[in-house]
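Deliverable D4.2, example record:
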Amino acid sequence: MDDKKVRVRYAPSPTGFLHIGNAQSALFNYLFAKHFGGTMVLRIEDTDTKRNVPHGEDSQIENLHWLGIDWDEGPDKPNPKYAPYHQTQRVSLYHKYIQQLLDKGFAYKDYTTEDELKVMRDEQRKNGEAPHYDGRWYGRSEEDQKAAEKQGLKPDVRLHLPSNHIYAWDDIVKGNVQFNSDNMGGDFIIEKSNGMPTYNFAVVIDDYLMDITHVLRGDDHIANTPKQIAVYEALGITPPRFGHITLIYNPKTGKKLSKRDKETLQFISQYKNQGYLSEAIFNFIAFLGWSPVGEKELYSKDELIKAYDPDRMSKSPAFFDQHKLDWMNSQYIKNADVADLTDRIMDLIKEGESEIAKKLQDVNLPNLREFIKHVTKVYQREVYKLTDIMEKVYFFANVDSETFDYSQFDDFSPVVVRLILMQFRRELLDASEKGDIDFDTIIRSVGNATGIKGRELYFPLNVTFTGNTNAPQVGSILKLYSISTIINLVDKALTGTEVKS
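Output generated by the structure prediction step:
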């Protein structure tokens, strides 16, 4: 790594919310900065005002924080040397450099109308040429410009590209990459007729003035890089190191993830609302385009920062493996503190962004938090997401009104099932009178009294109290119910056995 202190940036536009691709770029910039003891900058590229969405910037910031990604400088942490951090507040800075390029003859005003551009492109396609700007206003006289302005035309400003010129860079991920200026679509616009700079110009000025040393971004930006290098060269500025991170692909289609992939959640807020843990998402995304040495797959954030090595960034596509994510999330849930998981579930309920969260908002339990904590303790080793636990909470809180499938008793003798349930009822009432209820003890007593053990004992009890033959720790689950609820469930199950006397 160079002696110069590392400065990277994550620069989203508020034209949408934080999606998995944004998060990937932000995360690798974060790991890069932290691993090398550098600075991460958050910059908001908001010049495309027509496409900006309400709360787009807030969504980016809120969900980055949820993921565990923080920055050293940004709109909320301004460094006077580099502020402001919104491009719309930096327009006067861009004009200075636009004028510099105009004065040197590296840029020029273009008065071509939209209709003229359309005719030009149609003609090029007709001739089998790739559409490109033909440079018709390059070198035109002041008289021509004044005549165009008299017609009310407002010019764009274009950067002139030398012919047959190679723009090359040593990419952190891809190695040597180069483009020929003849294949870049011709002289490109650096300032629109409304006075706003284009992305490929503003980003150069911002990176230069903010002393950015390394630019890590998605592979979909690779065609922008030669244009930006062209601006650097025209201004006589040394560009930063570039690295283009592999994009994320759908393994089923082999295509880049898009909003059409309905089976894949697109936005980080969706993962949060569906009960994925931020630590699991951070860990999962870190493996989309990078891999550590060895077979270990579960890493804390600090471990990832220490292990991160840009030389191990992948040139191959990163495939989004939903099963891997679910497994990873389940591991984090298994190893988490029950009280912490309970707090997170309470937060999800309060926010009410999922259907199950909204349903739980209407659950009237005086001890909801303790109820959730108990369910979490029982099921945290069985689930993939926090919403799985929340579904269990809702089920158990409303178990009296649930309809169970008693046909599951068909695998057992109706006489045996009835014997177990009648004995359970007696043992429960007896323990209740004594004021000493321990459900595991009651179940053992039922087994001793009936001589029924193992699967034949537990499966009927599981169906009776949970509606499913598979239920972990049925004795613990029973602690969630009132005595009257338990008696009611036993009586319903007895009716469901349809035993003839």
